[in-house]
Each structure stands twice: as C-alpha cells, then as structure tokens.
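INTERNAL AUDIT FORM
Audit reference: QA-55
Scope: verify that the stored structure record matches its stored sequence.
Auditor: D.O.
Record contents follow.
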Amino acid sequence: MAVQTPSPPPMVVPQAGPVGPPGPPSHQLEQALEAAGWGRRFSAWLLDWIILVVPISVVGGLLSGPLGDPTGEGIGILLGIALMPIAFVYFALLNGRGKTLGKRLLGIRVIDAQTWGPIGGGKGATRELVRLGLGSVSFGLLFLVDGVWPLWDERAQSLHDKAANSVVVRDPHEPALPTHRTV
C-alpha cells in the first residue's frame, strides 16, 4: 500500500516594484543627527588641504633640483596648477561618499538634506563647482562669505551645501579626535 504525501503549495513570489529614494527620515534618526559646528567644519577643511598640499610640496622639492629649477618657482607653479583638478576630484568624490579624510578625523560627514544618505558624486561635484565659482568671483570675497554662512544659517549650511541640497552633521558612527585636553 502506497502512502500518498500531499504536494507542497505553489510558491508565490511577489513582484518587486520600482525602488525609489527612501521615505522621510525617522524621528529617532532626526534626533540622533546634530549639525556639525563651524569650527569642526573649518578644521576638517584645513586638514584636507594639508593632506593635499604636503605631498605635492614634497614632490616639488624633490623635482626642483634634478629639473634645473633651483628656486623651485617653475615647479611650484606647475604643481599649483595640477593641485586644482586633484583637489576638485578629492573633494567631489570623497564628499560624495560622505567623508573626506579631514571630516573622518573630526567625526563629521556630508549627507543629503532629504534622504540623509550620501550625496553621491554628482552632488559632490556640484558642491565643489559652486565653492570654486565663489572663490573665483570678486577676488575670493564670496568664498569667505560662503565659508562663514553656516554661522547664521538655520540648517548650518554653506552656500555650496544649499546648491547641492546637502548638510554637514556629526557622524554618530565615527569617533572624532578630541577637541579638548582631558586631565
């Protein structure tokens, strides 16, 4: 006598709908995020420029003697010209991913003001193009205005943040370098 086993029910796989941007951030996440202070933002920017300029200066110093430029002026001009596209790519890509090296060291990150995720390379490039544009207009006066804009802005955004719809926040996942000495 053969025992008949019931066959398993047919498997139904739901159809996946289009994947769009996530909904608005949760209230808990909103409370966990804190705008990065101006001093921390400025310090991260300064660290990033040191990270960019020191290696290029060392290369310039090493190349000036063998290339017959004892003062290094010609090499310095060439490396200064090369620094601009290098800096643009550095800031656009790393801010697009959320953190430059300076921001990582100081525990802050750039996020999209609506999705609260990374801004991506396109918005990272927009931030830098606006910052460079402001730096080249009116002998850098607008660049300085852009730099201090977060001091009075409701969302602590610079003008280049507003152009890319980004905000800079403290990173709850990244321990920051201490900003004061402990005894």
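Auditor finding: record pair retrieved intact. Residues 75 and 81 are 10 Å apart (CA to CA).
Action required: none
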